[in-house]
Amino acid sequence: MINLIPQSAKKMVKLEYIVRVMVVAAVLISLISFVAMLVAVPQLVLLRSQHAAIEATHSVSTQENQAIDEQVAAIELANEQVQTILTMYDVVPLTPYFDAIKKFESDDVLFTSVSLKRTTLGIPSTVTVSGEAATRERLANLKEQLEADPFVNSVDLPLENLAKDTDISFRITVHVTSTPSRL
Asked: What is the pLDDT of residues 34-64, one digit of tens each?
């Protein structure tokens, strides 16, 4: 039937046919694009929300890492200061002092507390002993025994400690001159 149409009309029919095919193709492409967009929008929303959550988690973890780094730096500084202090001074063990005082304890004289006061170099200078003595004579003997010990310089026993005859609560301050381990 196309053979009966003149040549100029044939060109017009072909052109119309091509235009119609293109319009149908454009409509199909538009529909496919619209459907693809409808499918992609929820995924885009999901990805954006996940991205926002990850960014929030990242900022929190970054802040925590900074806090941890600051704490690590503070600990390292403290360790360096401790090492400096330990290298500057010889650490004097306190056990010999406690043992030297503890040997004077007996059934009649019980110590309730023993405390040491150190000098700026860390060496104990005074030992304070608190306790209970059964009699005044036993407390006086304790003072004499402490004064006779080679590592003791002097002993301070307040007079009010000697006011009672029995069951005496006392507090003695012992000034030491040397380390008991040298004895």
From this structure: 999 999 999 999 999 999 999 989 988 999 9
Question: Would the pLDDT of 89 be above 70?
Answer: no
d(CA 159, CA 170): 10
Q: Are strands 124-135 and 152-156 parallel, antiparallel or unpaired?
A: unpaired
Cβ-contact 172, 158 below 8 angstroms: no
Contact by Cβ (8 Å): 134, 147: no
- 122 phi-psi bin (left φ>0, alpha ψ -120 to 50, beta other): left
168 forms beta bridges with: 133
Superfamily of domain 95-182: General secretion pathway protein M, EpsM (3.30.1360.100)
Give the chain's largest Cα–Cα span: 151
d(CA 130, CA 171): 4
Q: Which two tokens stand for residue 97?
A: 């002092």
Residue 154: name the closest of 131, 126, 180 by CA: 126
Q: Which two tokens stand for residue 101?
A: 């005082």
